């Protein structure tokens, strides 16, 4: 396919394809287009967002199958070949001979690049090394001063994953405040969120509004844009004294108060009703994985609140009510809440 034809065909599956680089489009046309068409014939849509447990299991199976076919002795060697310079040539030859790209993506309706990144995250032994020691934090600061945001190089020096070192540096780079939010910090947060949303809306409107309409136009946005896919690391930098996760949690609290006019939805009788409704709705959905849940729709079970608020309440519910919840699947957690805790909450109500 030539580039224009590739863009046109991919646009059916990837609406934002024209914003991608030419090299990315060419790779996607080679690796993904045939797969996407096959999924379409089966009535399966291309997916984005978080991977489900089912998809994670499929990736594990695909990697294990490829290792058994080729005799490559570890997933790390397969997915992080550059760490093994003495075996690199042989491993790359086996990957080419046995169609690694095709085999890794088998049965997963997503762009190959996202599947590959997910597999690397799942099988990177440097991802699961626990908390950073004081010595490691000092090393991280020193390496960043020397190499800037070259996370690949820093991750190799620290034997941690790229994502891990980047996130940890974001957390420790400045004097983070862990106490109550000051009025000044809240103002900075609100201005930062407004700024990124305005910038996004102006870009979206660039081709659809004339200059005179833009100058007189109020900022009218869908509610979802107030809390979905906001660039939290950018917002963190604008606030300056808080880690990005703190900014996200605080913004959710502010939005919840605005949307509910300050009512305390999760206290007393209303709190019990909300828990009961949440458990019932989750049970009715019969979802196998948290990623299959439409949290937006579920927000009605508690009230007019952001979906992140509902997700936080579900998290508190499972942590406080379910013994060894970490060892249970999502569906087992929901079943336990429905069978064991729901009768208790109904009796209390």
Automatic annotation (TrEMBL):
One of its GO terms (cellular component) is nucleolus. One of its GO terms (biological process) is termination of RNA polymerase I transcription. It comes from the Eukaryota. SMART domains: SANT. GO terms for molecular function: chromatin binding. Residues 124-161 form the HTH myb-type domain. Gene3D superfamilies: Homeodomain-like (1.10.10.60). Residues 124-172, 173-255 form the Myb-like domain. Pfam families: Myb_DNA-bind_6 (PF13921). PANTHER family: TRANSCRIPTION TERMINATION FACTOR 1 (PTHR46760). This is TTF1 factor.
């Amino acid at each position: 396919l030539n580039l224009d034809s590739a863009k046109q065909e991919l646009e059916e599956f990837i609406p934002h394809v024209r914003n991608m680089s030419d090299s990315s489009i060419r790779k996607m046309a080679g690796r993904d287009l045939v797969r996407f068409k096959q999924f379409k014939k089966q009535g399966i849509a291309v997916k984005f967002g978080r991977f489900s447990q089912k998809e994670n299991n499929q990736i594990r199976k695909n990697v294990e199958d490829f290792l058994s076919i080729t005799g490559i002795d570890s997933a790390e060697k397969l997915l992080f070949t550059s760490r093994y310079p003495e075996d690199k040539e042989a491993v790359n030859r086996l990957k080419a001979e046995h169609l690694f790209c095709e085999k890794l993506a088998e049965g997963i309706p997503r762009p190959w690049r996202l599947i590959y990144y997910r597999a690397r995250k799942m099988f990177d032994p440097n991802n699961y090394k626990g908390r950073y020691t004081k010595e490691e934090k000092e090393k991280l600061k020193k390496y960043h001063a020397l190499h800037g945001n070259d996370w690949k190089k820093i991750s190799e020096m620290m034997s941690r994953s790229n994502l891990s070192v980047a996130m940890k540096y974001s957390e420790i780079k400045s004097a983070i405040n862990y106490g109550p939010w000051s009025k000044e910090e809240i103002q900075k947060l609100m201005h930062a969120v407004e700024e990124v949303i305005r910038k996004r809306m102006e870009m979206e409107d660039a081709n659809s509004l004339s200059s005179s309409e833009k100058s007189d136009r109020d900022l009218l946005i869908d509610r979802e844009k107030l809390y979905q896919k906001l660039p939290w690391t950018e917002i963190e930098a604008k606030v300056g004294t808080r880690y990005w996760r703190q900014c996200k949690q605080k913004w959710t609290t502010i939005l919840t108060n605005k949307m509910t006019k300050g009512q305390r939805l999760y206290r007393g009788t209303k709190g019990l009703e909300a828990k009961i409704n949440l458990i019932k709705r989750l049970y009715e959905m019969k979802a196998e994985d948290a990623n299959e849940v439409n949290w937006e729709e579920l927000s009605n079970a508690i009230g007019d609140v952001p979906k992140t608020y509902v997700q936080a309440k579900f998290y508190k519910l499972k942590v406080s009510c379910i013994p060894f919840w970490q060892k249970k699947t999502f569906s087992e957690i929901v079943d336990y809440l429905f069978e064991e805790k729901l009768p208790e909450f109904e009796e209390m109500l």
